[in-house]
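Quick entry between incubations.
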Amino acid sequence: MALTVLGIESSCDETAAAVVRENGAVLSDVIHSQVKLHAPYGGVVPELASRDHMRNIDPVVGEALSRAEVTLEQIDGIAVTSRPGLSGALLVGTQMARGLAWASGKPLVGVDHLVGHLLAVHLEHPNLAPPVRPPFPYVAMLASGGHTAIYRVDGNLPSEITELGATRDDAAGEAFDKVSKLLGLGYPGGPIIDRLAADGDPSAIKLSKPMPARDSLEFSFSGLKSNVVRWVEKNGRPGDDQQLRDLCAAFQRRVTDTLIEKTLRAAQNLNIPRVVLAGGVAANRELRARAVDAGRLLDIEVIVPHIKSCTDNAAMIAYAGVPMLLAGEDHTAGLEVSPRTVLARVTRKGPGRRRGARIKRD
Ligand code: KG4
Ligand code: ZN
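Done. Structure below.
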């Protein structure tokens, strides 16, 4: 019998629960967003996040079970995000999951949030077109609010996923959020800039190209952000006018160009003709469209998951838990949370000499 898994996610600013079948079919996918709570601060406030998770975790899990029309007894296992994320926020989800596991006697596995994002392309949502499910291996670009990196994905276990290069400073989503805050546009910045950029001319304002080193698979977005700061200091903050749209378009073009260029280069270097986009920034419309076109020119298939599978959700956590549950793992007794990913990193944050994040061309 195929497994049915309950997934729980509370690593950042979404309280989420989902019920997913072993093959990726999503039976329910419930998300309570804290966006409004954190919006006045222009970013996630950890203390507020934990409290709000505590208020909502019970009803969100209950809703996920009832929408899937299953009881806890009918679930085969529980998967919960245990890393990386805000410790206080992670503890809310993991404590809830442990309580459910103790009460029901079902096995519980801790899942790495990044692994969830990297496998989310396999999720099959009701009422949406079936996903294009890439065979392994594939190259994945994960760009979210907290992480930005390129991975080689050889299978669905963390040990089969290799980081090829990551950001040295800000994550791509963080850059969107900071620039949005600087321009007085609100939080989270990605969807707002996405919308404004659609009516802007990306070549009207010149911004520097982030991290131009051609053979490196690392990213850096803080220079680009400083570039926008300097532009605003010199020209003043644009009002709600064409100049604002042009600035958003110029910034977005720079970010999306680097993400696409480096990810496709990684695929070419490794001779893997398949690229998957993942994480909240993969919801960006320009990125989605241009990545597919750029891939086509190089005979690389760019697979763009449904937006629901890009932004934070618990279905991807349930799905990432499947192989561990199938292997008979049970972390109920020793489950711990960590702010760090389990995936080995090749990129160190901050300035200084680098090793390891380059791939030699054949
Ligand atoms: O993966 P995610 O939902 O949560 C994290 O794990 O961080 O990503 C959230 C990030 C935020 O920084 C948000 O501004 C960005 O994804 N984002 C976007 C878009 N939608 C969300 N960035 C660019 N364009 C978008 N349409
Ligand atoms: Zn995420």
